[in-house]
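Q: My labmate handed me this sequence with no annotations at all. I'd like to see what the chain might look like in three dimensions before we decide whether it's worth expressing. Could you predict it?
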Amino acid sequence: MSKQGKVLVAMSGGIDSTVTALMLHAQGYEVVGITMKTWDYAAAGGSKKETGCCNLDSFNDARQAAVEHGFAHYILDIREEFGDFVIENFVDEYLAGRTPNPCVLCNTHIKWRALLKRADALGCDYIATGHYAKITQFENGRFGVSKAIDENKDQSYVLWGLQQDLLSRTLLPLGPYRKPEIRQMAHDFGYPELAKKQESYEICFVPDNDYRGFLRRNVDGLEARVDGGNFIDKQGKILGKHQGYPFYTIGQRKGLIALGKPVFVTHIDPEMNTVTLGDESDLDAADMTVGKLNWMKYDFTPNGAEVVTKIRYKDPGALSVIAESGSAVEVRFYQPVKGIAPGQSAVFYEGDDVIGGGIIQRMDNRL
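A: Here is what I predict for the chain of 367 residues:
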């Protein structure tokens, strides 16, 4: 039995998760690798070759690393659970005129829970992933997520939904390292080809990055239901016809209609099947409502707290104040922010620490 403990490592076959497993193994942990099959891309009818974490090559790469370093490796099929929850939500959100964030939902409700369940079955003390973030235990005893050293790779934004029982048993070894250091580690462990392996940034079940095509293939009769709606301006004047409201997102500029000037999607109305177009300044908003909250650093809503709020993954964040409003919070920004999209995640930071997050329900006071 290892003095460090036994850890179940999620291994996708990519550089980050493989180095995570090998790093923990070298540190003296008893490592068990597990690769989760979340989606069968062939069933989606996409036009491009299967990529990312759900293909046979990735499974084999993960297993090979485990075998060569003498630790166990398993494949866990969670396609049914993943599809029922993550994909249904993905489709439902677009049909509701919102922009979903399936990776956050998957981390929160599927992957971590599946890992913890299997960790318990295998007698593991911890679970670990190759995310670039840190686990922090605060002075009040609670656990939370903090930013990684490498801000270009930081993934703390997508982990806001993890609850205390998950956080207390999670290891994130890559948080103190920068990506070039991880590439060097791959070389040092004897996997120079892994350092060159192409990284996938697409949604795992939309590896061709065409969510519109995914919706068309997976929602029966969708085009007939939504085709022929109107583009309108903010006064309600009809500007032209669109292909169907689910095929547009807040802030979108390309693929609209020619009006002699740049225009952007500023609002989507599913009931009327209308898509509102406006100037870039129409995307500015001063406050928003955020629900489905999860607090990490505190066991209560920090009413009146001044925080930095991020409204998308690569958003640098903006200074704001949060105010409790029933089961939700109202977020007021000191300066207007651009492109708030209902359905996306809002994540609240104090310094490098994630104090919590939630799902954007609506934006208010558009300027």
